[in-house]
């Protein structure tokens, strides 16, 4: 915790130092700007950004403070990200178990799993939205937020599938042969050996998945234009970059905090599994 | 006639290597009587571990048959006729010592109360009653191996298969555990097939030492060991084992097994005579 706060303080210091001492016009290589301008427009002071958070969101008399709006949008995004995370974790674990069960599935599916992450989310988002809008499952009506959750799950399942597969394959030959010697079948071996052995691999994967789900949610909100969440807010407040330069930073901070919060929640969920994280017996 | 604990008949095991076949075992016969302690010894690559794995049905022979208590090895495995221990303890790190010992019982569907009772007895047997609640990473290598032996005994098997279980331990721990194993076997009356590459270990523990030769793996000689182990097996005292290890009969058998291992039949015959004399002398 102290280290995390220190890192934030360091980042703020670097920001302010560059702003104070960096080249005013930034630095460009040909047409490409490598380093940003140091003007208040391009790089507002960190304290201005913080102060902007407590000021009202608009000039209207009854406007809520900006932090309140960010909080509300963050809650919406967190809810969608949680659904996306849950779907992603479920799918990821199923894929991992299937890959462990059958080598041929591993050989066939693992490359696809890796390939899936090279498809840009921006390209995928409109597709999912249009498929979703045509979908009718009984009385369930496909809501736009569901498309966002599905896209978030698309990012979340990947670390879980890869991490869980490694974990399920981690027991030593002696341990698997021991289960075999006891006449234990595949399911019993999964339950008593492979699943517990996978825990130390799965927990970090779940944290990664949480961070991915948040990123996926925010990006998908931007790409599908879903209102209410942080993604849309980032898009809307970006318009104020010229007139109110500290304002667009508020939802960006919100997104960062959201990612940390999501990873923190998952870490707390895993706290009860400490005994599965013991080091492998050495002899 | 009661069925032999293990009956291996004409077993050959060929591994398909890269481009050529490796004959790990060729036409091996082996019979182990109930309650008998048999060691398999030989140079590395002689197939002694392979033979043990065939008995455990962790591998299947290319030719020949393996029977355990009159049944095919596979049936014996599925009905948990044997307990097994390897060179590595292979304990589950997330289970306590007690839970590790109870694992085979839990898999067999034994109730909680009965599991606890059996585990208490086994913990006493291997002298780890004070460590029941510890995790494997808190134990020394020798203690882990004792847990593995207790686990192998959990189902009260009439056959114990051990693949160099003391191979990774230091000499002191090794001799101590050998003594304890003799005591435990005397209590349990299980037949044991014990793979080792230590001649003194094989002689100290076994009723019979089966000497194997490498490439292809064959049984070269089957040497009966006649030593009076009652003092060791009774109380499991290290001092009694030290006496046994210093006995002339012990040395004579060691010399005989060594001669058989090195494939010098003339010496083996000479050693045989020495051994017989020594046994007679020791008995007198």
TrEMBL record, chain A:
Cellular component aspect of the GO annotation: plasma membrane
Keyword field contains DNA-binding: no
SUPFAM superfamilies: MetI-like (SSF161098)
PROSITE patterns, per database record: ABC_TM1
Stretches of the chain forming a coiled coil according to its record: none
Bilayer disposition of the protein: Multi-pass membrane protein
Name the record gives this protein: NitT/TauT family transport system permease protein
Native organism: Flavimobilis marinus
Highest classification ranks of the organism: Bacteria, Bacillati, Actinomycetota, Actinomycetes, Micrococcales
From TrEMBL, chain B:
Keywords for this protein: ATP-binding, Nucleotide-binding, Transport
GO terms of molecular function: ATP binding; ATP hydrolysis activity
Annotated ranges, domain ABC transporter: 6-239
Lineage: Bacteria, Bacillati, Actinomycetota, Actinomycetes, Micrococcales
Keyword field contains ATP-binding: yes
Gene3D superfamilies: P-loop containing nucleotide triphosphate hydrolases
Species: Flavimobilis marinus
PANTHER family, per the entry: ALIPHATIC SULFONATES IMPORT ATP-BINDING PROTEIN SSUB, TAURINE IMPORT ATP-BINDING PROTEIN-RELATED
One protein family per Pfam: ABC_tran
Regions that span the bilayer: none
UniProt-listed SUPFAM superfamilies: P-loop containing nucleoside triphosphate hydrolases (SSF52540)
Designated name of the protein: NitT/TauT family transport system ATP-binding protein
């Amino acid at each position: 915790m102290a280290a995390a706060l220190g890192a934030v303080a360091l980042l703020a210091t670097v920001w302010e130092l560059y702003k104070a001492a960096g080249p005013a016009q930034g630095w460009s290589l040909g047409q490409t700007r490598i380093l940003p301008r140091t003007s208040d427009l391009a790089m507002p002071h960190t304290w201005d950004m913080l102060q902007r958070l407590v000021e009202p969101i608009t000039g209207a008399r009854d406007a809520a403070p900006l932090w309140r709006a960010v909080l509300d949008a963050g809650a919406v995004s967190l809810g969608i990200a949680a659904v996306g995370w849950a779907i992603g974790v479920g799918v990821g674990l199923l894929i991992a178990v299937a890959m462990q069960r059958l080598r041929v599935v591993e050989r066939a599916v693992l490359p696809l799993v890796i390939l899936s992450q090279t498809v840009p989310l921006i390209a995928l988002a409109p597709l999912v939205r249009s498929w979703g809008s045509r979908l009718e499952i009984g009385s369930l009506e496909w809501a736009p937020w569901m498309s966002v959750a599905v896209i978030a799950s698309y990012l979340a399942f990947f670390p879980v599938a890869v991490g869980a597969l490694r974990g399920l394959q981690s027991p030593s030959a002696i341990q698997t042969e021991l289960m075999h010697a006891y006449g234990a079948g595949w399911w019993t071996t999964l339950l008593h050996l492979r699943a517990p052995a996978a825990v130390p691999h799965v927990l970090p994967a779940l944290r990664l998945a949480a961070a991915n789900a948040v990123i996926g949610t925010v990006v998908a909100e931007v790409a599908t234009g879903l209102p209410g969440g942080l993604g849309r807010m980032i898009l809307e407040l970006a318009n104020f970059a010229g007139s109110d330069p500290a304002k667009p930073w508020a939802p960006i901070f919100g997104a960062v905090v959201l990612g940390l919060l999501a990873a923190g929640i998952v870490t707390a969920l895993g706290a009860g599994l400490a005994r599965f994280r013991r080091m492998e017996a050495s002899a | 006639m009661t069925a032999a604990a293990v009956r291996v008949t004409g077993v050959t095991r060929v591994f398909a290597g890269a481009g050529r076949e490796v004959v790990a075992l060729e036409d091996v016969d082996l019979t182990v009587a109930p309650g008998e302690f048999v060691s398999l010894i030989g140079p590395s690559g002689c197939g002694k571990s392979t033979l043990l794995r065939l008995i455990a049905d962790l591998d299947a022979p290319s030719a020949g048959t393996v029977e355990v208590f009159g049944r095919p090895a596979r049936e014996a495995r599925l009905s948990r006729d044997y307990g097994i221990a390897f060179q590595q303890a292979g304990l589950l790190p997330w289970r306590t010592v007690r839970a590790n010992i109870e694992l085979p019982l839990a898999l067999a569907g034994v109730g909680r109360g009965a599991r606890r009772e059996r585990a208490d007895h086994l913990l006493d047997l291997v002298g780890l009653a004070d460590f029941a609640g510890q995790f494997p990473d808190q134990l020394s290598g020798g203690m882990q191996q004792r847990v593995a032996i207790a686990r192998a005994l959990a189902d009260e098997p009439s056959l114990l298969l051990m693949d160099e279980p003391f191979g990774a331990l230091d000499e002191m721990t090794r001799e101590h555990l050998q003594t304890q194993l003799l005591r435990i076997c005397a209590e349990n009356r299980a037949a044991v097939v014990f793979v080792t590459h230590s001649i003194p270990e094989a002689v100290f523990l076994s009723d019979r030492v089966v000497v194997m030769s490498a490439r292809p793996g064959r049984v070269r000689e089957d040497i009966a060991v006649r030593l009076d182990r009652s003092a060791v097996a009774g109380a499991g005292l290290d001092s009694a084992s030290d006496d046994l290890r210093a006995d002339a009969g012990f040395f004579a058998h060691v010399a005989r097994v060594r001669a058989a291992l090195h494939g010098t039949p003339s010496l083996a015959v000479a050693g045989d005579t020495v051994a017989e004399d020594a046994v007679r002398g020791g008995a007198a």
